[in-house]
Amino acid sequence: MIQLIRNSEIYEKVILEAIPGAAEYVWIATADIKDLHVGSKGSYRPFLGVLSDLVDQGLNLRLLHAKEPGPNFRKDFDRYPALLKGLERNICPRVHLKTVVVDGRIAYLGSANLTGAGMGAKSRDRRNFESGIITDEPEIVSGIMEQFDEIWMGACCDTCQRRDFCADPIA
Questions:
Q1: Rounded to the nearest 5°, which phi and psi values hold at 3?
Q2: CA-CA distance, 28 to 124, in Å (whole number)?
Q3: Greater confidence, 159 or 29?
Q4: Which residues contact 68 (CB under 8 A, 6 or more apart)?
Q5: Cα–Cα distance for residue pair 146/82, rounded to 1 Å
Q6: Mean pLDDT of the chain
Q7: SS (H, E, C) the chain
Q8: Tens digit of pLDDT for each residue in 8-37?
Q9: 25-30 and 60-65 strand pairing
Q10: CA geometry: angle at 157 spanning 108 and 147, to 5°?
Q11: What domains does the chain contain, in order, with CATH numbers?
Q12: Is the model's pTM score more than 0.85?
């Protein structure tokens, strides 16, 4: 299955369904990361709470992003101490891809950053115009994972030519 998803469909299928449905691991890559909030039982809470729940269930989480998040994200991050041990983070200023991989079985690849406006969590008139695909096609999922893993492991660091701008070099 390969399905084109847009705007609020990204929020529904990736943020509300795929990620919380993970059984083993979640890998997220985004250029920009902000204090995304998600609907939960009639109210909203930080998406970091969802990730913390997954850590508490024993899942492995990886977050690859381009720059340090803002103060609201950091404030919410501090509310979830499980993330200190259970969320691996790498920062690379060259990261511009937006991908999510869940258990190596389903992947999102698209334009949306991990923000409320990007993922479609904001109201209809305040969200970005985004699109992407969600798929369980093994060849596509594998390719997305391979690119993520190369960056994660620092395979591009020696030839990057942006090391002077890298706050926390991977390799």
A1: -130, 130
A2: 24
A3: 29
A4: 91, 167
A5: 27
A6: 90
A7: CEEEEECHHHHHHHHHHHCCCCCCEEEEEECCECCCEEEECCEEEEHHHHHHHHHHCCCEEEEEECCCCCHHHHHHHHCCCHHHHHEEEEECCCCCCEEEEECCCEEEEECCCECHHHHCCCCCCCCCCCEEEEECCHHHHHHHHHHHHHHHCCCCHHHCCCHHHCCCCCC
A8: 899 899 999 999 999 999 999 999 998 888
A9: parallel
A10: 20
A11: 2-165 (3.30.870.10)
A12: yes
Tokens, residue 22: 């993970």
> Token pair for residue 28?
């997220």
Q: Could you read off the pLDDT of 111-138 as tens digits, one per residue?
A: 998 888 888 776 677 788 889 999 999 9
